[in-house]
Specification:
With about 375 residues, the protein is α/β, with parallel strands linked by helices. It has helices at about 20, 25-30, 45-60, 70-85, 100-110, 125-135, 145-155, 175-190, 230, 245-260, 265-280, 280-305, 330-340, 365-384; strands at about 35, 95, 115-120, 135-140, 160-165, 190-195, 220-225, 240-245, 320-325, 345-350, 355-360. It contains 14 helices and 11 strands. It has a 7-stranded mixed beta sheet with strand order 2-8-7-6-5-3-4, sandwiched between helices. About 45% of the residues are buried.
Length: about 375
């Protein structure tokens, strides 16, 4: 499999309006840093996707487009059937420009300003911005703390549980039992669930992703996702969702098509999704295997240099969530050394509400991973 795809060759992303590379100064105040930040990959997308995009470009006409057609719906159904052994109801499908856009619409449908929205901590910063930006109150519960979860869901003004499945930034894959318990608690306390499953395709051997549709009960729920994370085409925009209740689904579509004026999706996003979900499986398996090797390298290097961390690879994703608290480093001092001395950009855990951690993106060629890990080790040693 590895011979079919080249993940070692570096693709120069500078000067391509890339947020991770060209926008690094916006967050770190310095241009030219080697970035391990925003969660996209440095790999070109699957050849099958590129071929489909080229064919669509050759057609030359890019008029208004509909997502409500069988090619798109059936491709998603095929993916869930073959990847997750799950039959979805394509009549429940909806479309949106991104998962965060979908989340925003659902929060506006199901909550009012001041209502409580429950999330697991540490928390993806996009969730935090969406929830607080709408004037809702973010209620955090630690990953794995079922008592805290029930306590927050039982509050009278708790209206929505926003679930990240698998979890970002920790890479935790929820078990079927954990998800079933979340569904039971949410239904008991009348809390709607929005399950963001954009990282689902990057679950590693030994773990199984369970789509929310498999555990959803009679309460309000939505599953939101996109092929953009797995196949690395977020710049094309485009996401899809499944909404259980017909009235909620109709209201979501009304908002998107009228209030938001988004009746016509990006045709290249539809093209990319169809090709990825119909033909891109072998590429995804190969890139996931390559990234697993990157994560194994990180674990090996940290075990040798900083054994007190006891770091192990995540269960899913290409984001190494590293707990540095055992090394006794100061976050601000570490970031100064990383930026000013090492010339690298690594996301600090405080962004996700977890000081003492860093999030290192290893969705990139191995040579870049080596540079990033060595820089992190040197920086920790310099400030401990």
């Amino acid at each position: 499999m590895a011979a079919l795809y080249d993940f070692d060759t570096v693709v120069d992303r500078r000067g391509t309006w890339c947020v991770q590379w060209d926008g690094v100064a916006d967050r770190f105040g310095v241009d030219g840093l080697l970035p391990f930040t925003i969660s996209d990959m440095d790999f070109a997308t699957a050849p099958e996707v590129l071929a489909a995009l080229r064919a669509r470009l050759d057609h030359g006409v890019f008029g208004y487009t509909t997502w409500q057609q069988d090619d798109f719906r059936s491709a998603i159904a095929h993916w869930y059937a073959t990847r997750y052994g799950t039959e979805i109801d394509t009549g429940q499908l909806v479309y949106g420009p991104s998962v965060l856009s979908q989340l925003s619409q659902l929060l506006q449908m199901w909550t009012e300003p001041g209502d409580g929205v429950v999330v697991h901590t540490p928390t993806y910063d996009g969730f935090r911005k969406a929830i607080t930006g709408l004037g809702r109150e973010l209620r955090g519960v630690p990953v794995g703390d079922e008592e805290a979860l029930e306590r927050e869901l039982s509050r009278a003004d708790a209206k929505v549980l926003v679930l990240c499945s698998p979890h970002n930034p920790t890479g935790r894959v929820w078990t079927a039992g954990e998800l079933t318990r979340m569904a039971e608690l949410s239904e008991r306390y009348g809390v709607a669930v929005v399950s963001d499953e954009i990282h689902a395709d990057f679950v590693y051997e030994g773990y199984v992703h369970v789509p929310w549709t498999r555990v959803a009960g009679a309460g309000r729920w939505a599953l939101i996702s996109s092929g953009s994370k797995s196949f690395n085409f977020p710049a094309l925009t485009g996401a899809y969702g499944l909404i259980g209740d017909p009235a909620d689904r109709a209201e979501y579509l009304r908002r998107m098509e009228t209030a938001e004026g988004l009746a016509s999706p990006a045709v290249l996003s539809l093209t990319a999704h169809i090709a990825a979900y119909r033909e891109g499986g072998p590429w995804l398996d190969a890139v996931r295997g390559y990234v697993a090797g990157n994560l194994a390298y990180v674990a090996e290097r940290l075990a040798a240099a900083l054994p007190e961390l006891g770091w192990e690879p995540p269960q899913a994703g290409y984001l190494a969530w590293i707990d540095l608290r055992a090394a006794g480093v100061d976050d601000a001092a570490l970031q100064r050394v990383l930026v000013e001395r090492e010339g690298v950009a690594v996301m600090g855990g405080a962004v996700y509400g977890a000081p003492g951690f860093v999030r290192l993106n290893v969705g990139c060629p191995r040579a870049k991973v080596v540079l990033g890990v060595e820089a992190l080790v040197r920086a920790v040693e310099a400030v401990r």
